[in-house]
Design a protein that fits this description.
Radius of gyration: 21 Å
Strand content: under 5%
Largest sheet: none
Order of helices and strands: HHHH
């Protein structure tokens, strides 16, 4: 792959990313009043982040059992409190203990 191809790829990705953000600003002038669209736009970032992160969580440890234990602990802990640092640290400890048990 030549340097030109790499720069062309970067330029194409930058253009697509820019257009995705600018086109709605150009065409949507009035406030959005539709409840369905407002709800969709509210939850879209959370869904996108979850879809991108979840496969990585399952393969992060190299062992599906320990990864599921860590994810389950983080899921439960984040619903029980708003302390996400505690959920993260607790899931790390849960993965560590699950790895000790599964050996």
């Amino acid at each position: 792959m030549s340097d030109f191809d790499i720069y062309a790829d970067i330029l194409l990705m930058a253009t697509v990313t820019y257009l995705i953000r600018v086109i709605p600003l150009l065409f949507i002038k009035k406030p959005i009043t539709n409840r369905f669209i407002k709800s969709f736009l509210y939850y879209a970032p959370y869904v996108t982040l979850s879809v991108m992160l979840f496969p990585g969580v399952l393969y992060a440890t190299g062992n599906t059992f320990t990864a599921v234990c860590g994810a389950a602990f983080a899921f439960i802990c984040s619903f029980m409190s708003d302390n996400y640092a505690l959920a993260s640290l607790g899931s790390i400890v849960a993965v560590f203990l699950a790895q000790l048990i599964s050996r």
